[in-house]
Amino acid sequence: MKNILKTIAVLVSASLISVSAKAGELSVTGSAKFSYMSHGGNDTGKAMGISNELNFTASGELDNGFTWKYHTELDPADGGAASNDDTAIVIGMGDLGTIGLYDAEGGLSTELGWGIGAMGVGADYANTMTKIGRGYDVSADPHVTYTTPAGLIPFGVQASIGYAPNTADGQSNSYKAGGAQADADVDGTNATQYKVTASPLDGLKVGADYYEVGGNRASNVSQEKSGGNYYVQYALGNFKVGYTKGYVEPAKNTNKYRTNVADTATVLNGLQYQSDGIGIEFAVNDQLSVSFSEEDFDRTHATMAATASTATKTTVTSSQTTLMAAYNIGGATLGLSLIDTDNSDYTASRDETKSIISLALAF
């Protein structure tokens, strides 16, 4: 598959060399957002915040009928810093599909495909966790993706394959950047992700993804870095229900169980993470939507004394309940989100809550 993707990229590049681009158009869209967040339980913090996002988009057409689209975003960060990121160049090839060149963009993870959340999808919109255990994504690294054209395969099936040639390279590289040296690493030095989605029936959407690493891997790897998700969503009238499940396996060396060198009972250093969620969303009318979801996040860690031959595995489950309401007033959306987490950060009896009042203005 990787060789096929590389061949397609070469053919597209050759085609682009032989044609000229017509003048494109530039547009700017964005949003301004305000939020007030109040914590409860084991966390008593409070905060007000205002941010904005500006998306600069350019598009055009080539003489051979191919289309092109470029975008980059200006995003704020905590503390007032801002940076250009989420950059992409996408070539539309009609019946041949699309080729995308992405930097911090173009994700193929389907973890949000279940789509339940009046303000945003469940724990991805807001959570109390340091690590919620969702699948990896090639959007973490500069990559190229090929996607089949819509309508080519029956039942609305579309497939994508993304390839990041150097995961040591980092993001936001400038034109003609030299790149980092890909030394042997327990996480490998390149990554490939596959994604398939389908709409086999009216109102029904399904999808899945799988992420794996390769390249220059360290010799002592005993568990390779991998992850994936799948989802089902069904909409009927004003109701929408969804289900999702995912897993993550971080890379581990041959001593992955030894308590003195690797997996310990910390939030970020688990042996395996699994997640699943289910929820329902209801559009009361054209202005008001409400939603309810339940998500569980399992973290498994393993410990083994230096002289032992078997490992002891322990699994801790963090559970999140999310209630949301969104009310649209023209170009403004008022939101209320209530999050309640049991065993937050995979810590027994650590219960935390968040209440978020928000205002979003689109322009």
Q: Key terms for this structure?
A:
single chain, 363 residues, mainly beta, Porin, 16-stranded antiparallel barrel, two-stranded antiparallel sheet, 2 helices
Task: Describe the protein in words.
- By secondary structure, the chain is mostly beta strands.
- The chain has 2 helices and 18 strands.
- It has helices at residues 2-17, 122-125, and strands at 25-41, 46-61, 67-76, 82-92, 98-103, 143-147, 158-164, 190-198, 204-214, 221-223, 226-236, 239-249, 252-253, 272-283, 288-303, 312-329, 332-342, 352-362.
- It has a 16-stranded antiparallel barrel with strand order 1-2-3-4-5-6-7-8-9-11-12-14-15-16-17-18.
- A hairpin with a 5-residue loop joins strand 8 (190-198) and strand 9.
- The two termini are 41 Å apart.
- Mean pLDDT is 87; it is low at 6-21 and 259-265.
Compile the SSE list and pairings.
Elements: H1 2-17, E1 25-41, E2 46-61, E3 67-76, E4 82-92, E5 98-103, H2 122-125, E6 143-147, E7 158-164, E8 190-198, E9 204-214, E10 221-223, E11 226-236, E12 239-249, E13 252-253, E14 272-283, E15 288-303, E16 312-329, E17 332-342, E18 352-362
Antiparallel strand pairs: 1-2, 1-18, 2-3, 3-4, 4-5, 5-6, 6-7, 7-8, 8-9, 9-11, 10-13, 11-12, 12-14, 14-15, 15-16, 16-17, 17-18
Distance between the termini: 41 Å
In CATH's first tier, which class applies? Answer: Mainly Beta
- Structural class estimated from helices and strands: mainly beta
- Summarize the biggest pleated sheet: 16 strands, antiparallel, barrel
CATH architecture: Beta Barrel
Unreliable residue stretches:
6-21, 259-265
Number of helices: 2
- Give, in order, the helices and strands: HEEEEEHEEEEEEEEEEEEE
